[in-house]
Amino acid sequence: MSEFDLRKFEEEAHERWTHAFEPDPSDTEKFYLNVAFPYPSGAMHVGHGRTYIVPDVVARFWRMKGKQVLFPMAFHVTGAPVVGISKRIARQDEKTIRLYRDLYRVPQNVLDSFTDPLTIVRHFAAEYQRVMTDCGLSIDWRRRFITVDPTYSRFIEWQWKHLYEAGHVIKGAHPVRYCTVDDNPVGDHDLLEGDKAEVIRFTMVMFRYGDAFIPTATLRPETIHGVTNLWANPNVTYVRAIVDGKAWIVSKEAAEKLALQDHSVEIKEEVPGKSLIDKNVSHPLCGEVPILPADFVDPDMASGLVMSVPAHAPFDYIALRDLQQAGKYTTIKPIPLITVEGYGEIPAQDAVEKAGIRNQMDSRMDTLTQEIYSAEFSKGKLFAKYGGKPVRVARDEVAVLMTEKYDSVVMYEFDVRPVVCRCGNRVKVKILHDQWFLKYSDPEWKQQVSDHLKDMALVPPEVRVEFDRTVGWLKDWACTRRVGLGTRFPWDKTQLIEPLSDSTVYMAYYTIAHKIRDIDPKLLTPEVFDYIFLGKKSDELPEKKKLDAMRQEFLYWYPYDFRFSAKDLISNHLTFQLFHHVTVFERQNDKLPKGMVVFGMGLLNGAKMSSSKGNVFLLEDAVKEFGADTVRMFLMGSAEPWQDFDWRNELVLSTRKQIERFYNNVMETKDASGEPHDIDRWLASRLQAHIARTTTALDNFQTRQALQEAYFGIESDLKWYRRRLPEDCDGSRELHALCSVWVRLLAPFIPFTTEHLWKELAGEGLVSFAPWPVANPKLVNAKAELAEELLARTVEDIESILKLIQLKPKAITIALAPDWKEEIFRTVASAADKNTVVKEIMKDPAMRKRGKAATDAARQITTLIHRLPPHVIEPLVREPISEQDIFETAKTFLEQEFGVPVHITGAGESDLAKAATALPFKPAIIIE
RNA sequence: GCGAGGGUUGCCAAGCCAGGUCAAAGGCGCUGGAUUCAGGGUCCAGUCGCGCAGGCGUUCGAGGGUUCAAAUCCCUUCCCUCGCACCA
Question: Does ipTM top 0.85?
């Protein structure tokens, strides 16, 4: 008998699998699944392992179910990260070198070449392919590509032509977080501080100050009617600057910011804050008001000057009160302009006094401000003299009025400060021009996606709300970049198409990737792709024959059946691809994605896996140490795909033992030759349920559930089976069939071991293409299962009694319940209302005669029925079993189990007191 | 803050949608036993408390409620994880 040797199984299988998983269009029904392709900037860890093994298990499952399965793979190399990596390696950055040399184990000579970003992705793409193959992924590698292949770029250009023609690609200006030192937009990951900072749009209210303007930024322009004063910080030096030809007085910081926001700014002179205090300014909507001193005014916030509305802004109210308590400016009174339910005439005063706030430093001030802001926005109304409109309406109207008539402009600012770039510089808001967008905000486009989403299968179903929400929430997406790898943007060749925007319909490209390679990229005009993907004919198409073959591939495979990807891509990639699909394949609903499966994340020993933190276990090492099948089975069995899983070496080790146990089980039983017994009926019956449940689980992508059924379910049955065999028998010849089923059920999970076993079982061809087992209803034997259930329960009871009484038994008597109890059992079990059934039973004169014994029995039986599983009750009611026969047949077994004589008797015939406790399906047990 | 998911017996983790099969699957760990047995491997048993008869008691983040019956349904509350855009 051949030894359990995973390494050997792997070698054998790899040899036999060469070119086995390269499907072409055929008459067979297809199943196309794909997974978000990796960005190969480093080595694969076990977390990546699961991402690709799940679809492989599914692919193998459907392949065995007789489908023509396409599982392709490619590499996404578009974007900026490797550019940064190559730069860091070029300048010998310690951390980066350590990561690549020590953790990823890149040889020095290769590492030296990493100063070229493309070399990095090429190297790791090759590594990925090698490790994926080691894992037994049944990928069609003929279709592999990387996203900077010129051929792929032609495809992207074609895709974008359609997006553009549909009006979804627009050019515009856009406020972004910007670092003036790096001279680049700053993403979240590039921030040292303030990573949650949002860009807020303020209205600048322009107060007239002599021949100049003093702008104050506000989110509540309608409160202009209640302005009593301005605040300036006397300790700050402001500047007088010519902004767009007019004189403004703002803080120095503000002047710099305005220059980044489409204003021409020329600083003329400094203006000490002190010099502004007590001067007057005016605005057409509020008249003349004074400038008052306030230390809280931050020069780095908007213009560095603030308009004060003490009636509605708690901060303003307190600041004014503080001054007035010192005896200054006592003539100024808050001017209310909004009525709002739940607050008095002057809401800010009301709120501050109710809360008992003493000064500006009180920590509750922010919450209070937020409260009033929300209350007034949602429920507030302007006074009749200011138009009487709800705040939410008036706010925008006043803003428009100010912009049109009173010189107001927009200024962008962050909601939190400070915002600091990795380089240490303060980040500002810059308005970027020549910025291109995908107009995801377009309601019509959104609607198209929503409509299609309704028809899609989403796994697990809970993610549907997240998709719906994302579609609603998506705003315009900046889709071009200035740095990185990628395809040139057709309408501005200095820019590149952004990575999340060039990876949305490539699933269609997979169908032709292996064939389009033969054609010179120069010939790949949009017309060529229009023909392949949309069937649009046009004159003078090159290589017509090849194009026809590709058209045929596309028509055969598309749309894809399922796409697999991680949860965190819902809010961008997974939704983007739907937007792109509905446009590119407009009016071809039969080419739109059919389903998606969303993954959870991976943990390593309870902590999040992260390459940068070094908390990773390389997939390659795992495969070497434990074997590919072990890694696969562990990853599939420890959690369902959408749940988070935790990799722990000690658990993986026990998975390996399980595979070995399975292997030995099959090897030991496959050639059994005994005569079949009753217990074989039982085993076969149970097997049908395992087949059905494993199949259902895999139909639903529940890899864990499927493994529980296919592995543990069958294993524990086999254990009981062996226990029930007569002493001189090691199993019947029917076990061969069970082994065949078992091996096939586990083939998607542990393909290497099962491939070997399949050969040992003399199965035809590869197990990878063997027919998936189908449950045979004819082999389902409810009676046999019930009999074993009764027996197993009784054995368990006997064991637990023996353990308790701790005495050596001389004999065991099993006393069976009398017929009248059986009758009660059936009555109770089939009764709709189990509360009144006892009364019903006692109406029967025969029962009444039995008196208390009958009521007691009825009560006990009701409890018992509640405790028994439905799968026992139901057949029991439908078709009574003979407990007598069952125990008589199993008598030898019981005697063998317990080593003492076993007597079977009817409870009525026994004079032992205990016998009276016998119930149907729960015989009385008397141990002597 | 907004959105989503989650808190189960030493640990991991089923169960919850369709309330009684639940003292609660499976695995790990631990304890004991078997095995011509190396403190390793494999196998068996135990692993909330009490009990010399298959039982009883107390548990499923916390607090209430519905019900004959709740880990499962409803309400309140506390805690954790993830996503929130120019990044793959």
Answer: yes
